[in-house]
Automatic annotation (TrEMBL):
InterPro entries: Anthrone_oxy. It is found in: Membrane. The chain crosses the membrane at residues 15-39, 60-79, 94-115, 157-180. This is DUF1772-domain-containing protein. It comes from the Eukaryota. Keywords: Membrane, Transmembrane, Transmembrane helix.
Length: 181
C-alpha cells in the first residue's frame, strides 16, 4: 500500500512538472508571437485595419493566456508545497517553484495597471475605425501598437522567467518527485 501511495504521489508531481513546463512554454510563445510576429504583420496594413485586428487578437489572448497562467501557477505552487520540507539548501527547490508560481500570473496585474492606458487607447481607436465617419490616424496607431509590442514583450519575459525558475528546480532537484511522494 505504501508503494502504491508513493507511485501515485510521484505521478502527481511529474504531472505538475509537465503542466508547469507546458503551460509556461505556451504562454511565453503566445506573448512572443504577439509581439514579434503579429505586430509586424498588423503594421503592414492601414491603421483602421491594424487597430481592429489588434482588438481581435488581444481579445483572444485575454481569454486564453490568463487561465493558462493560473493553471500553470497552481502546478508550480503544488510543487513548491511538496518541496517545502526538502532537505536541500534553503534557497533550493521551494524558492524556485515559489518564484515560478508568482511570476507567471503576474501578467494579470501588469496588464491591468501598466498596459491599461495603451490597451484603452487602442480599443478606442478600434471603436472609431468601426465607424465609417471617423478616420484613425496612421501615426498614432503605429506608435501605440509599437508601444504595446514592447509592453507585451515584458509580459512575456515574466512568464518566461517563471518557466525558467520551474525548469531549473526540476533539473536541479529531480529527486523531489521521489522524495515528496
Amino acid at each position: 500500500m505504501a508503494d502504491r501511495v508513493q507511485i501515485e504521489g510521484s505521478l502527481l508531481i511529474k504531472l505538475a512538472q509537465l503542466v508547469g513546463i507546458a503551460g509556461g512554454a505556451l504562454v511565453t510563445a503566445i506573448s512572443g508571437g504577439a509581439s514579434f510576429m503579429l505586430v509586424p504583420a498588423l503594421k503592414a496594413g492601414p491603421a483602421s485595419v491594424l487597430v481592429r485586428q489588434w482588438r481581435v487578437a488581444y481579445g483572444i489572448g485575454a481569454r486564453s493566456a490568463p487561465p493558462i497562467s493560473i493553471v500553470t501557477s497552481l502546478a508550480w505552487a503544488y510543487l513548491a508545497s511538496k518541496a517545502r520540507h526538502h532537505p536541500a539548501t534553503p534557497s533550493g527547490p521551494f524558492t524556485f517553484y515559489t518564484l515560478a508560481a508568482v511570476l507567471g500570473p503576474a501578467i494579470v496585474p501588469y496588464t491591468l495597471v501598466v498596459m491599461k492606458s495603451t490597451n484603452g487607447r487602442l480599443s478606442e481607436l478600434a471603436a472609431a475605425a468601426d465607424k465609417a465617419s471617423e478616420k484613425v490616424q496612421e501615426k498614432e496607431a503605429t506608435q501605440l501598437i509599437e508601444k504595446w509590442k514592447w509592453l507585451n514583450a515584458v509580459r512575456g519575459v515574466s512568464v518566461f522567467s517563471a518557466l525558467m525558475c520551474g525548469a531549473y528546480a526540476i533539473v536541479t532537484w529531480p529527486e523531489i518527485a521521489i522524495w515528496a511522494a
